[in-house]
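JOB MANIFEST
job_type = single_chain_structure
chain_count = 1
residues = 312
[input]
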Amino acid sequence: MRTKGQIKAAILVAALAAAGCSSNDETGTSSQNSAKVRPISMTNTSTPIGAGDKALNDWASKTGPVSFADGEAAYHAGKYGEATKVFERYAVEKPNNAWGHFMLGLSAWKGGDLAKAEMAFEEALRIDPDHTKSLMNLSRVLIEQRRFDDAIAKLTHASEIDTNSAEVNRLMGRTYQDQGKIDDAEAAYRRAIALDGKDAWSMNNLGFLFLEQGRPGDALPVLAKAVELRKDVPTFHNNLGMALEHSGRFAAAAAEYNSALAADPGYEKAKRNLARVEAVKVNAEEPFDLEVTAKGFPDGTSVPVNETTKDQ
């Protein structure tokens, strides 16, 4: 027989799914030509290129070799199908370039072709077994296929290569969370945040984990910190809104749902959440102070894993 706490958590999980509360992360490309990684949010829709960017499509009419830059330009414009075609040709022309296979995998994954993405990442790893970005992004493909043990194996290898990677720990957290290994997931997210005190995606995911467990009080400071760091991410505002709503702070929740919509006017889940809380008749609330709340989770290391507030 399930306890009241377990029943409450199960009901909240269903509500969170219906309301669109989510955990995720972001990834980017790091090409052989680029010094910096350009992050691409997994939750946002890329804006198509306009007529003035016609040059991005010129590769299609080429009779000679395509360039890596052609594919990157299409990828960053959100034209993943075109990017996939470019990197398919590039991989044939330069079969021993791990980055070409990596970008083929990334483009195919973004375009929804998980099988092609997996094969491309595996080919990059055949060329360079320690290609950490291929290991991490292959793990994302495996997570989507719910092949969690395979994903953990890739991430364990990546962690051996880069012992200080917050991204690897974040992905481990996602994998454990999807497996229902709550303590392991929380520990992995906290390791990620300890390694990178500005890893807002790990904070978001940890906050979502708390929400799944029926712990909105624990979720509030970590989600507030994520929003404080990245006010441009609508998912963070939506999740913070959920934590506030489930803490009975409906006016503050409505403000966060509005912020999510300001960042992404087409965010349907935030629209539904906003409509729901606006229909609730409540008395005046104490104003919500984002900065003060975020200080309750300054760096992810101040609250030991086993000393968080439990579900009541």
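[summary]
The first helix runs from residue 4 to 19.
Confidence is low (pLDDT under 50) at residues 1-11, 29-56, 300-312.
exit_status = 0
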